[in-house]
UniProtKB/TrEMBL annotation:
<dbReference type="InterPro" id="IPR041726">
    <property type="entry name" value="ACAD10_11_N"/>
</dbReference>
<dbReference type="InterPro" id="IPR052898">
    <property type="entry name" value="ACAD10-like"/>
</dbReference>
<protein>
    <submittedName>
        <fullName>Phosphotransferase family protein</fullName>
    </submittedName>
</protein>
<dbReference type="Pfam" id="PF01636">
    <property type="entry name" value="APH"/>
</dbReference>
<dbReference type="InterPro" id="IPR011009">
    <property type="entry name" value="Kinase-like_dom_sf"/>
</dbReference>
<dbReference type="InterPro" id="IPR002575">
    <property type="entry name" value="Aminoglycoside_PTrfase"/>
</dbReference>
<feature type="domain" description="Aminoglycoside phosphotransferase">
    <location>
        <begin position="30"/>
        <end position="256"/>
    </location>
</feature>
Amino acid sequence: MSADTQTLDEAAVSAYLRDNLPGFDGLTAVTKFQGGQSNPTFLLETHSRKYVLRRKPPGVLLKSAHAVDREFRVQRALADTDVPVAKMHLLCEDDAVIGSAFYIMDHVPGRNFNQPSMDGVSVQDRGRIIDEMNRVLAALHEVDIDAVGLSDFGPVGNYFERQVGRWSKQYKASETEDIPAMNHLMEALVAECPEDDGQRRLVHGDYRLDNMIYDAQTTDCRAVLDWELSTIGHPFADLAAVIMQWQMPAGAEGRGMGGLDRAALGLPSDEEFIAAYCQRRGLKGIDHFGYYLAFNFFRMAAIIQGVHKRALDGNASNPERAMKLGQYVPVFAQHGVDSLKR
């Protein structure tokens, strides 16, 4: 049984796959992906092909967090839609196998862009890659949740009201210091919540360029990854999440577009991206966008606070990066407060 987030009990995994995965012909290598902060993820190489194992971290976890079973279900449901996802193989909910639940999916080869500046990519291809990101997002929000069996994947009612309540509780459960901007933001998001407009769609919850795999040769998306926060909710939360990320500084830390000459790089403005999304979905425009943006800054602040707390507790997936991320909680909170004024 694996005791931490950095290693995997290869013998236990191999025995389980031998009994449950058709065509499995033995492990030849196991490598941990270093990018993720939530659910530890490993590349499994066999004699004939590659798989990915994604698991819950061991130890005491926040309620409803790290839901690998939901990740597995939603990606399997999207297999025959216009939303590209990896093929799902197995879900193991027996903690006795490796210490926590996990699932097995195909490894999807291709390109992953950690930053929207996409160094080394041509001006033309940068624009096409971001437009493909836009296309996939619009396609996700047009998925017929009844047809794919996901109508019960999230409760009915005001999505933002529900999410603000949920993440406020998560934040309080992992709070390590008093942050006035975060306290103000939680109160303001409750007070200024828009009325429910009836849009009930599948949402990703963490839709970013670095959560996508693109074809190695073309600008086509091969798979959208990291579905832990997916649910049935409001599509504008996903759209605003993209714009939120772009407000961050450019570079490896912020992974945003702050300070970049977007036009020179072939990258769209926020307004152009939103307009393309609206055109694809047949929308005339979006009201209350400042609120949706503020909500995303708030949720990200709550998420990285949880990552920071796990680092302090000793069960973070990437402890060094988790400690560094914790410094950004007040920054995201203040961005959220500022966004409400837009």
